[in-house]
Design a protein that fits this description.
Radius of gyration of chain A: 26 Å
Distance between the termini of chain B: 78 Å
CATH class of the domain at 44-149 in chain B: Alpha Beta
Structural class of chain B: alpha/beta
Number of helices of chain A: 7
Largest sheet of chain A: 5 strands, mixed
Strand content of chain A: 5-15%
Number of domains of chain A: 1
Order of helices and strands of chain A: HEEEEEHEHHEEHHHE
Largest sheet of chain B: 6 strands, mixed
CATH architecture of the domain at 44-149 in chain B: 2-Layer Sandwich
Helix content of chain B: 25-40%
Oligomer: heterodimer
Distance between the termini of chain A: 98 Å
Strand content of chain B: 15-25%
Radius of gyration of chain B: 26 Å
Number of strands of chain A: 9
């Protein structure tokens, strides 16, 4: 005898599943967060008293309560900031894609780096360490930097390095709007990224952004890693998160 | 008139809906895997500024959020305030908060914690600076200024 199996009504199943789906859609957020990343300097009790305003190795971006910009003593619009920043970081030529020019007024002086210069610097540091002029930690730091330079020279043939004191500092009044602050940070970030992209696409037929992304995907690929490090040496990340001015200053 | 009555009934094939639950369940599973449940409620109004040079943090569990903006509920005033987790807080409380949040991560990842600042674009920099200063004290130095995407401008 054939047993008849009663049919299960499955039509409501879809409704139940839809309900669950909608609940999940409403109560969840998709993927991570995005924004401008920054590394803050470690906390120190004494803010540096040095006034970098007249220093050619510092690009000082100030903004006031009326959202006006003062870049190295010159009033600028946010849209002009990127060009000004590019002038500053390219300085007298990076030595990779452009020849090194004579020093230009108001921007840092880049210094040509090759194996010979690195060798001389190494002996110099060793001597000063032996004489006790510098501490072991300073020496190790300097050696690490020279190692990176060496790697960059290997990769690019030659390049011209920014002085270690070159810095872009942003200082905002407490009443500056956050919108302007982000616009400033974005322009500075863009200036450095553009220059990195430029030399990367001339040398490696890929933009820096692409090389970096590719390296992230395959971290075992050392060739990509060397390229990234070399480019970073030519255009280092020099945006500093300086302390904001005390209230009442211009 | 008989010819009308004799009209043959057209049989329309029924659309089978048997696979519909399967399809919807598949969608559901996709969303369950790809998303994280919303953990906190936004008590301040945050309209993020837009930027073009964005960095995306994929590891969501490493991010801790600091929201700054005008309270949603106007009874709490119209000045920008800071929200940590589910409550309003003053910048002075950040140190403790960072310490606590850090212990929630496993040891290998504690130094990789990101603090995402979700700040309303109308906010003045004063409170943001205070928060940054406190973050430095707490050695939470990796910061993300959360922003929306806009197209790149310039000579490219």
């Amino acid at each position: 005898m054939k047993r008849t199996v009663p049919q299960i009504a499955a039509s409501s199943m879809a409704d139940i599943a839809f309900l669950l789906l909608i609940f999940w859609l409403l109560s969840s957020t998709l993927n991570g967060d995005q924004g401008i990343k920054r590394f803050l300097p470690p906390f120190s009790d004494s803010p540096s008293q040095a006034d970098p305003t007249n220093d050619r190795n510092a690009l000082v971006v100030l903004s006031n309560a009326f959202d006006q910009l003062l870049v190295d003593g010159e009033e600028l619009d946010v849209s002009e900031l990127r060009t000004r920043c590019v002038e500053f970081i390219v300085a007298n030529g990076d030595g990779v894609t452009s020849p090194v020019l004579a020093p230009i007024e108001g921007v840092p002086v880049r210094e040509m780096v090759n194996h010979q210069v690195i060798g001389e610097k190494r002996t110099n540091y060793q001597l000063r360490l032996n004489q006790g002029d510098i501490s072991q930690a300073t020496f190790n730091g300097a050696m690490e930097k020279l190692d990176r330079w060496e790697a960059a020279v290997e990769e690019l043939g030659r390049f011209s390095a920014l002085p270690g004191s070159a810095v872009i500092s942003v200082d905002c009044d407490r009443a500056t709007s956050y919108d302007l602050y982000i616009a400033i940070q974005n322009e500075l970030e863009a200036a450095i990224r553009e220059q990195r992209d430029r030399i990367a696409s001339e040398r490696f037929e890929m933009t820096y952004t692409e090389i970096e992304a590719e390296w992230k995907r395959q971290p075992e690929n050392e060739a990509l890693g060397r390229q990234v490090i070399a480019i970073r040496e030519v255009y280092p990340y020099i945006i500093s998160e300086a302390q904001t001015m005390a209230e009442g200053t211009p | 008139m008989a010819q009308f009555g004799k009209k043959k009934k057209r049989v329309v094939g029924e659309v089978s809906t048997a696979s519909l639950p399967d399809i919807v369940f598949m969608l559901l599973f996709f969303f369950m895997v790809a998303t994280v449940l919303r953990t906190e409620e936004e008590k301040v109004r945050v309209i993020r500024p837009d930027a073009s040079e964005l960095y995306r943090i994929e590891k969501k569990h490493l991010i801790r959020y600091v929201n700054i903006g005008v309270p949603q509920d106007t009874r709490y005033g119209t000045d920008p305030v800071m929200q940590l987790n589910d409550a309003f807080a003053s910048p002075a409380e950040i140190y403790e908060w960072v310490e606590k949040e850090r212990t929630k991560l496993n040891e290998a990842e504690q130094s990789k914690m990101w603090v995402s600042l979700k700040v309303d674009k109308e906010t003045k920099m004063g409170i943001v600076t205070d928060v940054k200063q406190e973050l430095r004290k707490a050695s939470a130095l990796k910061v993300l200024y959360s922003a929306g995407r806009r197209d790149r401008t310039g000579n490219e």
